[in-house]
TrEMBL record:
Keywords: Signal. PROSITE patterns: PHYTOCYANIN (PS51485). The keyword tRNA processing does not apply. Residues 1-30 form the signal peptide. It comes from Hibiscus sabdariffa (roselle). Residues 31-130 form the Phytocyanin domain. The keyword Ion transport does not apply. Residues 132-178 have a biased composition (Low complexity). This is Phytocyanin domain-containing protein. Residues 132-184 are annotated as: Disordered.
Amino acid sequence: MLPFIARKMAVQRTFVCLVALAVFVELAMAANYTVGGTNGGWDTSTDLQSWVSAQTFSVGDSLIFQYTPNHDVLEVSKADHDSCQTSNPLQTYTGGNTVVPLTSSGKRYFICGTLGHCSQGMQIEIDTLATSTPAPATSPSSAPSSSPAPGTSPSPESAAGSPLSPDLPSAESPAGVSPSPPAPSSAIKNSFGTCFALGLGLVLMAF
Ligand SMILES: [Cu+2]
């Protein structure tokens, strides 16, 4: 009877663990990118090409365009991006605060529709990577500049492992105290080990 209960608890804990991990991985993976970065924006004075090339975009991320009323955001074809053609946009966004979710992998093109702004640099090509494919090795040069993504630190295992570990014991302790026999403690240890292994596996898979 006891081993059965212990096993059931272990399964429950593992499940809770998995849910927590899924949420954590989701949060770690999805990122919001304010176009132009914290020191720039969607304007003619920001070096948008440099900003774009320093980022890695993945499915689930979002672009946030913040701009003054003299700008807008046009999503256009590659040809229109390359030629700064503003008359045939796929999408037009105005209002100063535009969120564009990157829902699928592939390239998307955005320019400003204000006369002359595209040729002054307000044109970006966003290459969104599929989340299932491992991101190309996070180069040391791009890692420090991408502040919103904690996952891009040079050592994913230690970065992802440390915020998790303080979480787990606290989640275990309230439930783990109530059953008196010593059997559950091995179950806890077991589920903790399982959880840790799963977490490590997930994190490794993600990166
Ligand atoms: Cu503009």
